[in-house]
Amino acid sequence: MSEHIKIHKAPGTWTVRAGGAVLVESANALELVEGGMPPVIYFPRSDIGMAFLEPSETRSHCPHKGDASYYSIQAKSGLIPDAGWSYESPKDAVARIRDHIAFFPDKVTVEQL
């Protein structure tokens, strides 16, 4: 793994809420810490209400993790564009985040219960 990226099981149970709905509740989340950046919680797809998520056309690239695909959330209040992202084929050093999605905390509520 890249020396400046650490991945471990996030302690406890985590949730994601958007537009008044709980999209995720997971005791299997991963916490990724990259350099001096704030930790990011990655949720297993199997714990996500994927019916609320729509693939977006947005893409980005990280030299350490690979190519990211984005997801918008269809909430009661309307579409929340590019609210989450996933590395579909992450680099080997961060392979643990495959099949996980992270969410922007300024677009949804990500919290530990």
UniProtKB/TrEMBL annotation:
<feature type="domain" description="DUF427">
    <location>
        <begin position="15"/>
        <end position="105"/>
    </location>
</feature>
<dbReference type="InterPro" id="IPR038694">
    <property type="entry name" value="DUF427_sf"/>
</dbReference>
<protein>
    <recommendedName>
        <fullName>DUF427 domain-containing protein</fullName>
    </recommendedName>
</protein>
<dbReference type="Pfam" id="PF04248">
    <property type="entry name" value="NTP_transf_9"/>
</dbReference>
<dbReference type="InterPro" id="IPR007361">
    <property type="entry name" value="DUF427"/>
</dbReference>
